[in-house]
Design a protein that fits this description.
about 375 residues; alpha/beta; Oxidized Rhodanese, domain 1; 4-stranded parallel β-sheet; 3-stranded parallel β-sheet; 16 helices; 9 strands
């Protein structure tokens, strides 16, 4: 990229930015970025959290000019050069990208100016984070207003996610939340922040609607998927959307849970923490999941299941066999999950438009949803 070329103008075409996965520099402080940003945004801040706090205090006590002067003092010399270099490397690698700050104001203007002084013309996003965030919130709201939704429900372990994976118009809320949705749904890696979850979901809807989709299939979820909360308007709609009920035998459900929550989850922890620490971290996480529902199980039943789980884990960590896990899985389904789902199914009976096994449900949804 050269300063001799006609510089690209600053941009407010948020729809195009998100549809094309446009790379972006988020110049906000790390604390702001960690609360949530956008897909394809990288945090290369103008100021660290501490620097931003000092400037903010100065602004309150002495006004804008003094705050700006302090900012230039804090970010100068080698520190300034290092940040400009980081922006320049990104700009050269992503010549079609943009930079932004919170409102498209002073921080992105300074970043843009310093880049220009280094010989790189790089455009800003007008309105910054706040304007893009408002755009994505409205995208979710308009999808709820204008599109048709069908839900897939069923007992724990029936394979609702497997159904979604076979449909072109399915939106997987659990994938966006990086959580399987149940008390045992926590993954080895962390969930996104709430804002990041909502933004990614909005971009998903935006892309699908741009391709012509107006009907969507979702899994029937509670308001919370782990720590991530389904947007209020969407969750309110989910209380009324037609429901397709997926059925499977107890044996089939036990095998599916064994694979998802024991075999695959252990592999996730090993991939993340290595073969030495991974299995132990998995075992600790699995036992913690059970401990999280001790109040609902009751102390005596919890202790019985925890003993069974510990024996299964000891065997698994010793020789890799997972057969003993079926005992606590079966008991947990019968004593805990199934009674809850039977109650929920009775409450939702009027909305259930179809019941069937996985093949039947997929065929129905392809034809009707």
């Amino acid at each position: 990229m050269s300063s001799e070329k006609t510089p690209r103008p600053d941009c407010a075409e948020f729809r195009e930015i998100f549809l094309h996965d446009t790379p972006m520099i988020d110049t906000r402080a790390p604390a702001e970025f960690n609360k949530g940003s956008f897909p394809n945004a990288v945090n290369l801040p103008l100021m660290t959290d501490i620097e931003r706090q000092k400037v903010g205090t100065c602004y309150k006590q002495h006004g804008q000019q003094a705050a700006i002067a302090l900012g230039h003092q804090l970010v100068s010399g080698k520190t300034k050069a290092a940040r400009i270099n980081a922006w320049a490397e990104f700009a050269r690698a992503h010549p079609n990208g943009y930079l932004f700050c919170f409102r498209g104001g002073l921080r992105s203007q300074i970043s843009q100016q310093w880049l220009a002084e280094a010989g790189i013309a790089y455009p800003r996003i007008t309105g910054g984070y706040k304007a893009m965030r408002s755009f994505l919130i409205e995208e979710i709201e308009s999808a709820v207003r204008e599109c048709r939704f069908t839900l897939v429900g069923g007992m724990t372990g029936t394979g609702k996610t497997e159904v979604l994976m076979q449909l072109d118009n399915a939106v997987d809320l659990e994938e966006h939340a990086n959580h399987r949705g149940s008390s045992f749904g926590k993954r080895a890696t962390a969930q996104p922040p709430q804002i990041g979850f909502e933004n990614a979901l909005a971009v998903d809807f935006l892309k699908r609607r741009a391709s012509g989709q107006t009907r969507f299939v979702l899994e029937d979820e509670s308001r919370l998927i782990g720590r991530c909360s389904v947007p209020l308007s969407l969750h309110q709609g989910m209380c009324d959307y037609p429901l397709v009920w997926l059925e499977d035998s107890l044996e089939g459900r036990v095998e599916r849970i064994l694979k998802d929550y024991v075999v695959d989850l252990c592999e996730e922890f090993v991939a993340l923490h290595g073969t030495e620490e991974g299995p132990a971290a998995f075992a600790q996480a699995l036992r913690q999941n059970l401990a999280n529902i001790i109040k609902r199980l009751g102390g005596q039943r919890y202790q019985e299941l925890d003993d069974i789980m510990q024996q299964a884990l000891q065997r698994q960590l010793a020789d890799g066999t997972v057969d003993r896990h079926r005992d606590w899985i079966t008991a947990l389904l019968r004593d805990y999950y199934d009674p809850m789902y039977v109650y929920q199914a009775e409450k939702k009976a009027a909305r259930i438009v179809f019941r069937g096994n996985q093949r039947e449900v997929v065929e129905y949804l392809r034809a009707h949803a």
